[in-house]
């Protein structure tokens, strides 16, 4: 039933409720304005790639989110897609294949496409998503080269859609507090940092079949997968400026049969313009997850598990900082949906993903040359 005003037009409020949230969001993000009135339904998300992260984290999280919901999927397996449609109660018409992603265009249920495929496929899938006029969330690492990051950013700009990176920790309260301490220079600027992140990729069936060990699909080893979190933490600690140069060294290969294509471990040092340094490492041989930053007036430490899905421990020279436990993926998804709805800039934009891949490229270049590499612009 339509609500007409005396002049015969549909009321503005009613009209905005009827236009697709996508169109309204697009207008809002182009203007940088908040949606007024806000969309009358949760934003619809389509997950691209129904692997472990989608299945065990993002899908379940989208049942708990307040501002977005699962409205469709893109998968190489139509059968799996239909199961997801039944499980998450969205129409089977919203199951797409990688080759038919273009059909997302104009779909009124879907506002955001969230790419959760192997690293080197992010660029292809994000660009295809942007061309449909949908906003894009790209999992970390954003891509396997700066050139691919640039192509994704250009496609999203050309389409006038928002691009964010699935950096969940920005929406996690302990990490947000760590970032605040850094920004406010509560302990003085952080000058000495140390961080590590890794897990044991054993020689099991998983290791033999995982694309993470395939250079072509993964782009690299633990640095691409786990090391980006350490790069992120160091950049969070030095918000004022990214690193200018890095030195790096590949670790020894204890299991050459498993690590024939990608590194088993790598350590690197990030050098910042003000003389600050961050000593970092990442590995597929050991479960490790921590980050410590020291200034002249104190320190802050994200303790094991600093980067996993659990609640991290944040201790500082002033004591322990305790925040409510959140589901990381719920916090991230709702955080990103609200940024869009309210027309705020994202705290994890595509440019940040690109910055991190520029650092990763420099780390690989330094390790390959047994020397030092400047971080490219
Ligand atoms: P999985 O291997 O479990 O799943 C990847 C999915 O991508 C597959 O199930 C498949 O879905 C799809 N796919 C499309 N093409 C290929 C291909 N050529 N080879 C393999 N899979 C393909 O990976 P994850 O879910 O663990 O990781 C996916 C992405 O998410 C990665 O970029 C990873 O870094 C990121 N991630 C982020 C996390 C975070 O905390 N932010 C945590 C874990 C992962 P389908 O069968 O539906 O086509």
Give the helices and strands, then pairings.
Blueprint: H1 12-18, H2 21-31, E1 43-48, H3 52-64, E2 68-74, H4 78-88, E3 95-96, E4 112-115, H5 122-131, E5 135-138, H6 146-159, E6 163-165, H7 173-183, E7 192-200, H8 205-209, H9 215-218, H10 222-237, E8 245-250, E9 265-271, E10 277-283, E11 285-295, E12 298-303, E13 313-316, E14 319-321, H11 328-341, H12 350-368, E15 372-374
Helix pairs in contact: 5-6, 6-12, 10-12
The structure holds NADPH dihydro-nicotinamide-adenine-dinucleotide phosphate.
Residues 49-54, 75-77, 80, 116-119, 121, 139-140, 166, 168, 211, 217, 225 line the site of NADPH dihydro-nicotinamide-adenine-dinucleotide phosphate.
Q: How would you characterize this protein structure?
A:
With 377 residues, the protein is an alpha/beta fold. The protein is 36% helix and 22% strand. The protein has helices at residues 12-18, 21-31, 52-64, 78-88, 122-131, 146-159, 173-183, 205-209, 215-218, 222-237, 328-341, 350-368; strands at residues 43-48, 68-74, 95-96, 112-115, 135-138, 163-165, 192-200, 245-250, 265-271, 277-283, 285-295, 298-303, 313-316, 319-321, 372-374. The strands form two sheets. The chain has a nine-stranded mixed beta sheet. It has a six-stranded parallel beta sheet with strand order 3-2-1-4-5-6, sandwiched between helices. Helix 5 (122-131) runs parallel beside helix 6, helix 6 packs antiparallel against helix 12 (350-368) and helix 10 (222-237) packs across helix 12. The longest helix is centred in the C-terminal third of the chain and has 19 residues, at 350-368. The N and C termini lie far apart (56 Å). 49% of the residues are buried. The model is unreliable at 1-37 (pLDDT under 50).
